[in-house]
Amino acid sequence: MTSVALMTDPSAEDPVAAIHVAGAVLVPDPCGVLWWPSESILIVADLHLEKGSSIAGRGALIPPYDTAATLDRLARAIETFAPRTLIALGDSFHDVGAGDRLPETYRDRLAALQRGLDWIWIAGNHDPARPANVSGDWYDELATGGLVFRHEPEVAAPDGEIAGHLHPSARVRLRGRSVRRRCFAGDGRRLVLPAFGAFTGGLNVLDKAYAGLFERKALAAWMIGDKAVYPIAGRRLLPD
């Protein structure tokens, strides 16, 4: 079971909370990454690189800068934590053609970020295979240190699952106003990470899509603020 403090003010600069999952101590960061300090592993979910070009290809007028923004944020996280390993939890590329659409400038930027790291891609439903000309190891899922990393959470998975896919967000009422933020969602057995990509939205953790994933009494959301991550007891969460 997860021990959860109550959030008092989402704009306050409280210390970042640690999240305990199956014995592992993990640190959520306001940028949306998860840090596993004992293993020097940085974890990120749902980059959705080249989502903008995919949408533009269907005729929408949208700025084609989402990949640049996402890689910039990822570069800052890598600089901050200096990990030995990075695990990307699937849907790193928005579709099977995203690698072909990835401009050479961005491909070079990605290669520079990967330099010196053990870079692990987990297959997602949007990117079931690694794009050509992209380096790093590719797995359907990966088990290490008592945790299992996969893209889509599985109801029957054993304790220690770390996943993405659902783009979790949470809503609470504070001082008479509603606050909705991206979040990490878990119950001590598993943790679902927020989407990291620039053009990704969020799905409320109380949505039926999460049915069976969390023990309701143990559910907590770590809501992302501008400068800190705030742990919220599940009983305080509201539907949209």
Q: What is the multimeric organization of the chains shown? A: single chain
- Total domain modules: 1
Order of helices and strands: EEEEHHEHHEEEEEEEEEEE
CATH topology label = Purple Acid Phosphatase, chain A, domain 2
Global geometry: globular
Q: How would you state the average pLDDT, rounded? A: 89
Say how many strands there are.
Answer: 16
Q: How would you characterize this protein structure?
A:
This protein has 240 residues and is an alpha/beta fold. The protein has four helices and 16 strands. The protein is globular and about 45 Å long. The strands form two sheets. Strands 8, 9, 10, 11, 12, 13, 14, 15 and 16 form a nine-stranded mixed beta sheet that branches. Mean pLDDT is 89; it is low at 1-13. It has helices at 51-56, 66-81, 98-101, 104-114, and strands at residues 19-21, 24-28, 34-36, 41-44, 85-88, 118-122, 137-139, 141-144, 147-150, 161-163, 168-174, 177-186, 190-192, 203-204, 220-224, 229-233. The chain has one domain: Purple Acid Phosphatase, chain A, domain 2 (4-Layer Sandwich), CATH 3.60.21. The longest helix is centred in the first third of the chain and has 16 residues, at 66-81. A hairpin with a 4-residue loop joins strand 3 and strand 4 (41-44).
